[in-house]
Amino acid sequence: MRLRSLLFLFVLLELGTLIALGMLAGLWVALGTVVATGILGRAIFRRGPGRRIPGVLLMIPGLLTDLLGLVLLLPGPRRWSGRLFQLWMMRRVQLGGMFQQVSMGGFTPPGGRPPGGRPPPGFAGPGMASESPGVIDAEVLDVRELPSS
Asked: Which of 5, 26, 24, 22 is nearest to 62 (CA)?
């Protein structure tokens, strides 16, 4: 419930800042800002994994998410936020909350087995021996032929 309230408040703040920008600078400036940051966010998102979160934040219409996305493009805040996210994830894993919610999503707790389930085929968790050493179970998503040398 608390998270929903915060999310609702954040959406209201985003809407309020867009309305304020529209009133101060004009409707076309506000719309242009939303479109331009959306295009910029898409371009940044496509540049790689380290820039996906700032890219998504820039694609979301609103000045607060745009500001947060631009700040996360800077190396210092990006490292700091990455460490903060790691600590948050470790805490979730230790409390067991992550695996109660996403046990089918491929996450495996430190013991190697999701609650009430078996480890994925070929998975070797800490202290576990793999059924097929040196074999990685994977799915090919895109195959491109390389020119022969």
From this structure: 22
Are 122 and 131 spatial neighbours (Cβ–Cβ below 8 Å)?
Answer: yes
pTM: 0.55
Burial class of 142 by CB neighbour count within 10 A (0 to 12, 13 to 18, 19+): exposed
Task: Tell me if residue 36 falls in helix, strand or coil.
Answer: helix
C-alpha span between 94 and 37 (Å, rounded):
38
Q: Using the structure block, give the residue that is written with the tokens 């089918």.
A: 104
pLDDT tens across 89-146, in order? Answer: 787 777 665 444 444 445 555 555 555 555 555 555 554 444 555 666 666 666 666 6
